[in-house]
Amino acid sequence: MNLLDVLGDAAAIAANPIAGLAKVALDVAPDIAGLFGDDAEKAVNKLAGAVRSITGTDDPDKAREALSDPNLVYQLRNQAQAFAHEERMAQITGAITTLTSTLADRQDARSRDTEFIKAGRSNIRSNVLLITAGLGIVGGIGFMVFGHVDGNTAVGGCIISVVTLLAGKFGTAFDFEFGGSADSEQTRNLLAQAPPIGK
Questions:
Q1: What are the transmembrane regions (predicted)?
Q2: What is the pTM of this model?
Q3: Where are the chain's structural domains?
Q4: DSSP string, the chain
């Protein structure tokens, strides 16, 4: 449920003064609704806090009256943008942390393979897993084609799901071997989503 749906519920607003303050914020500055993500409860709390700090009241009617001042509405918009910016930066930071951890794990695995090669050995386990995934993909497709299995049936859907899962494992193997460009692309995408500094 998004922010506008929550604040459109008159019963919820009557039962929760915080929602009333947030509704005042959206009434005087409706454009700020688009700044927030899917976490409606968090957005309501942030907006209510902004209205309270700017107007100095917990009463929605008094807050609405105070926000007839355009300067206070300007302050409200600035605070809402700052909250939205913090939320987006937190999401990007979390994504970068996850990506960094994934890259470190992948590098550790590559180092392990390098040590295997230096010792004149091969990573039999990973080779067996990759071959098994390949056989599973070929077998699943072959079973559907030669067994005339309809993809819309339960059996067909199950086979498609398994083949898709195994194909994803192949993608992971390619990322492991040739991850430089893919990993860089992920990093570029994350940085491109970051709001400009100072905005």
A1: 128-147
A2: 0.47
A3: 3-85, 89-193
A4: --HHHHHT-HHHHHH-HHHHHHHHHHHH-GGGGGGS-S-HHHHHHHHHHHHHHHHS-S-HHHHHHHTTSHHHHHHHHHHHHHHHHHHHHHHHHHHHHHHHHHHHHHHHHHHHHHHHHHTT---HHHHHHHHHHHHHHHHHHHHHHHTT--TTSHHHHHHHHHHHHHHHHHHHHHHHHHHHHHHHHHHHHHHHHSPPTT-
